[in-house]
Amino acid sequence: MSRARLAGRFSPEQIAELWPAYPADAPVTIAQARDLIDHSVTTQLAHLLPPSLEPSGASNIWALNGKHTANGSPILANDPHLSLDAPGTWFLARLEAPGITLVGATTPGVPFILLGHNQTVAWGLTTTHSDTQDFFIERIAADDPNAYETPEGSEPFRVRDEFIRLSGGESVRLIVRETRHGPVMSDVVPEGSSGDSNAVLALAWPALRADDATPDALYQMNHADSLIAFRESLRQFHSPQQNIVFADTAGNIGFMAPARVPVRRTGNGQLPVPGWTGEFDWIGYVPFEELPSTNNPRSGIIINANNRIVADKYPHLIAVDWPPPYRAERIEAVLAGTASNHQVTDSLILQQDIVANAADRILPRLLAVSPTEARAREAIARLRGWDRQMHRNAPEPLILQAWIWALGQAILADELGPNYLEFLDGGVYTVDRLIETDSMWCDDTATTEVEDCNAQIIRALDMALDHLSDRFGSDMASWRWGKAHLARFDHPLLSRLPVLRDLFGYSVEADGGNDTVNRASPRLGGKPETLFEDVHGAGFRAVYDLEDLDRSRFMIATGQSGNPLSPLYGNMALRWRDGQSVSLAPESWTLAEQLSLLPSQK
After folding, report:
1. Distance of alpha carbon 353 from alpha carbon 517, whole angstroms
2. What value does the CA radius of gyration of the chain take, rounded to a whole number of Å?
3. Percentage of the chain lying above the pLDDT 90 cut
4. CA atoms of 584 and 427, how far apart (whole Å)
5. Are strands 273-274 and 134-139 parallel, antiparallel or unpaired?
6. What is the mean pLDDT of the chain?
7. What's this model's pTM, rounded to 2 decimal places?
8. Which of 49, 128, 427, 483 is 20 to 30 A distant from 22 in Cα terms?
9. How many CB atoms lie within 10 A of CB 55?
10. In which element (H, E) is residue 386 found?
């Protein structure tokens, strides 16, 4: 949708610069029709969900086989990254029943361990960032408003009623139209069916299929007794596509990205395409045996941090755009240094790593400018001597983050308006590529002269320092990243009530940043006083020891209770921030933490 909105305003070259190509040397886990739809429709669809409900996902995972570990058995580490809320997404659980033990993280309403281990296999997930959704522009039949065009002629919309029941009120009726590609999404916005274009937008997505068997896959994953059985259980993992890394007590490690991944007749899914020609139709899904996977790679190490998972020679399209490789590069470098003596403690420390790997990419360009103001020169001097640690007690992370935030605004806001933030990645990736190539985006369209990127870098530094001085005073030495970078845990409902907001929400100063292994993505929009709050990170961390799974370690960001009045509501937040972990072995429980479910004696 974002590309579609820009297509009529900017050149393909300008649009391509907003989604930089994945670097050729970065880590790989296993090595005209658009004008029929009014731009207001694509704009509204792109912003249909409030920011708190927009999809976002990132995570880290790595597995090492026994030749890299001190005890000769695999170690697997996983920390999925999601929005930080209270109560949290994840809850720790140990489930024991005759013939099975399941340990790890689950979430309310899901009758499985989603991330964890049984007696034999441990597993974890990261988001693939694959492209398995397409918007099709459906042209309404000229002689029948209740039909749309297909390659074989017109076909009537499939129509059904859905009712949303409201407590204490009448149900709301929702009329859903479907085409051969999927539901008509443009019907949910007022201008969805334009009188001039006589077209609608339909969404194709495997998750909408009635035969999606992903819950069955989760059940089988929980019960798999070997790497072979676990891999076979993924055959029914249909949607959404995830990178799944697994290890077993026999010493094996493996990776697979299971899902129904569409095979397109032509096209790559980046823009809405004509639905009436059949030219862009899906002609099937990538066969299970051809999905990205590896078992026991020669290196003995598997790493994924949402980086690209396949090399150029891979025969199927998984995605055109991939997240930046910074976290994967850092993980790769650290694991290379542990040689053959890696221990569970080493993985726990790596999950807390706050080295700003991305800073080495962008800082040489930023620090090459020569500002005239004394405070700007002081900021540059501090960044030159910085150790690249995103530590909460240091001023340099705050200066760098504010500078990148201001630079993104200076470069893009004049062309893209208030929505410019959606075209950034929260870190340095896009901004770095734009200034590296001295992009045409650096010119300020509001002025008659043509600005280059150097001018915008200096301007952005002044903007950043103005903002920080207003918030934290003029003494740069007293600035602290943690003062702005609070990991804030707000209740989804009570946080909207003035008095209860402070009683049932809480916050802790946090290390890390958007591109560190210890992911702590800052807020880049909203009120000035909330800029740079930590809003996205590892709500769950686990390190699995396959020699003795009871030695595995866990942590969640909040607490085990969803009741704001409970002492267990947010009691783990500080321990989570400081890198501590807990055991879920039986001997570590207190009596109050155990719950036995016994069969009825009747």
Report:
1. 5
2. 25
3. 70
4. 35
5. parallel
6. 89
7. 0.90
8. 49
9. 7
10. none
Q: How far apart are CA 59 and CA 518, in angstroms?
A: 10
Q: Confirm if 400 and 361 have CB atoms less than 8 A apart.
A: no
Alpha-carbon distance of 15 to 38, in angstroms, equals 19
Q: Do residues 154 and 163 make contact, with C-beta atoms less than 8 angstroms apart?
A: no
Give tens-digit pLDDT for 551-591: 999 999 999 998 888 999 999 999 999 999 999 998 776 54
* Cα–Cα distances in angstroms (integers) from residue 65 to residues 302, 348, 546, 562, in the given order: 9, 17, 10, 37
Does residue 547 surpass a pLDDT of 50?
yes
Q: In whole angstroms, give the CA distance from residue 118 to residue 124.
A: 12
Round to whole Å and give the CA distance between 598 and 96: 12
In angstroms, what CA-CA distances link 150 with 75, 136, 140?
A: 53, 11, 10
Map tokens 């790890």 to a residue. Answer: 104
- The pLDDT tens digits of the residues spanning 224-245 come to 999 999 999 999 999 999 999 9
In this prediction, residue 51 carries a pLDDT of 46
Q: Which residues contact 210 (CB under 8 A, 6 or more apart)?
A: none
Angstrom distance (rounded) from CA 401 to CA 406 = 9
When pLDDT is cut at 50, 70 and 90, the band that residue 54 belongs to is very low
Residue 358: partners with Cβ closer than 8 Å, 6 or more residues away: 324, 326, 427, 428, 429, 432, 515
Question: Do 453 and 441 meet the contact criterion of CB atoms below 8 Å apart?
Answer: no
Q: Which is higher by pLDDT, 544 or 165?
A: 544
Query: Distance of CA 487 to CAs 79, 140, 313, 519, 580, Å?
Result: 16, 49, 41, 11, 16
Mean pLDDT of 137-157: 96
Residue 534 is inside which H or E element, if any? strand 534-538
Exposure letters 322-339 (e unless 16+ CB within 10 A, then b) = bbbbbbbbbbbebbeebe
Tell me whether strands 134-139 and 199-204 are parallel, antiparallel or unpaired. Answer: antiparallel
**Could you tell me which residues are beta bridge partners of residue 541?**
555
Average pLDDT on 384-408 reads: 97
Do 403 and 461 touch, CB atoms closer than 8 A?
yes
pLDDT above 70 as % of the chain = 87
